[in-house]
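Lab notebook, page 48
Experiment: co-folding of the full assembly
Goal: obtain a model of how the components sit together before planning crosslinking
Operator: M.T.
Materials (sequences as entered):
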Amino acid sequence: MNVVVPLVVTLPLLAAIVIVLVGKFLPNRPSTVMALLGAATPVVLAAVLLSRVTSSLYTYWFGDWRPRSGSYPLGIAFAVDRIGAGLALFALALLLAALLYSWKYIEESHYLYLALMLCFGGALAGFALTGDLFNLFVFFELMSVAAFALTAYKIEEPSPLQGAFNFAVSNTIGAFLVVFGLALLYGRTGSLNLAEIGKRLTEDGRHDGLVVTAFVLITCGFLVKAAMVPFHFWLADAHATAPAPVCVLFSGVMVEMGIYAVARVYWVVFDGVLGEFQHPIRDLLIGVGCVTAIIGAVMCGMQRHIKRLLAYSTIAHAGCFLIGIALLTPDGLAGTSLYVLSHGLAKGALFLAGGILLATKGGIDELLLFGRGRDLHGAKVAWFVAALALASPPFLGTFTGHALIDDGASALGLWWLPAVVAAATVGSTAAILRAGARVFLGIGDREDPLLSENPSESPPPHEEPNIRWLQAVTLLLAFAGLAVGAWTGLAANAQEAAHQFTDGLAYTNTVLDHAPTLAVPAEHWRTTAESIVWSLVTLFGSAALAVGSLYRDRLPRSVTDRIGGVLHPLRAAHSGQIGDYIAWLTFGVAVIGGLFAFTVR
Amino acid sequence: MSFVPYALAVWIFLVGLYGIVTSRNLIHITVCVTVCQSATYVLLLAIGYRTKGTAPVFADIPTEGRRVVDPIVQSLTLTDIVVSVAVAALLLSFALKAFEHHRSLDPAEMELKG
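Observation: model returned without errors.
Model output:
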């Protein structure tokens, strides 16, 4: 057990180093096999870890710098709970799927690409497991730098460069916000260990300007990674230009890591000292989540570049993830974690299907590809299965996650919140269905006045991609995404894990005093009639809206012009200019910080 | 301990942000990002500063009656610098490649939109 914890993170990193050193002198096949082993072994280890941490938190002190009870923690710790271990397992499993797909997708997988992917995966796993604030920043930057380079992997083309540049500048500024916040917390508490910071802040009890500023900066910094409005602009540029298997990790787990960090830092560090301000924090984060969900869904409906469309769908879903976290209850958190699981698998399948279109048809534009995907049966089935999973049909796909968030919101009296989540789901799923219907089935109009132009993308450099292999991996992810919702035992597990996660005091005691955590018995969630109604609403609403948007060309010109005019400012805001993005970022931090300071005052 | 270093850190950060927002040159933006990062160094070092403290060297020098500045923030700053080098190198290489395509470093001449 002691050996397992660090190996989950270090094995992919070590494999990356070895591949960089020897890959140049080897043919591609051995490097690929090494990379697959470097990803598959940690998947097994992370699964072992997850099965062992069921009852309590597991702390691993590097170099055995374990603090004596009550003394100051000098060492660096990994504090692994079920949600952290589950997220690490999920990240590594998606990495493995992406590598399996890349094997036949990107010219026999170039060794530097493999090394970057392994670095990225290792950093994601480390981010999920660590119990140290500075370590969070380091893994944040490690995953970011690997991700920037992966976005610009097709460096001979102009748009990936721009996408990567915007991505890199936005996320780096986000990371600086985190550093500012953690420096302030270090100044107050003299510690970087999450548990110790939380304990000292709670004992100190002051919730003055320093604590509030640190909270706002750290939260906003991680929300940049989570692509919340108005920090979300980089995401569409990065996703539209990165290779398809890389997007699987971006959408499936990297964005979610930002939300995970917000939740982790809130529950361990700030819940004690800012606990009496739960209401303003909840309102603020729910507000950000709702705006993000709606803007993401609206933008999603206006895209014809398929990967960009999927990127905006991710923004819409990320807004819903934040809503689940922002309820600040175990049920909301459990809902988000199940939602993330199903969404990551389904969205991954959609990106991989997009990659198949790019590889075989040489394009990724919905209108140009009209009807040309009819012969790609595997990709077609995967596309619609994954879209079904995202539509949250009863007892399949994202249903359990949605239902837990909805019920959690209703329990708090936020009766309108399920409607927002449903609207975001309907909007983004309808766009996915619409694009799929045009490309794979060849139905609908050939023109659409509301879709925006975007630069085309050239196919991946590969002579003859093995389409069967690519479709097999895509189908696997799509069906896994759908089936996860049917696994009913998972909901109870997620609830117990969420109870453990939200018990900041137990976390602190386990990390610092090695006191065993008592498992909190959770009230088990049962399906309510309300959640089934909402799931039918999203399912049929998505289908209806998709059919409607296939025939937008038949609307009178005056109507589409009016809609286009209303949406124009929103579209213009997504200008592709990094200067604008950073202006929005600054504005967002100022507004969120100002509102929070005003309510806490 | 005066407030000046903290105000300075905020000032440097804002100057860097202003530079990124108004810049029309990718290399200039990269430099502005490193300016923002410098603000984090100033803040970290200011937090570890002790009046009349000396360098945090504990080997070979007696520690009694001697104040030292906080070594942890210094190592954090070093880590931060390493990160900054990696990011700046990547950004500059992107800028270089972008120049090869467009014969221009102006981000406004690039093409992603909406």
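Interpretation: Chain A touches chain B through 51 residues (CB under 8 Å).
Next step: discuss with group before ordering constructs.
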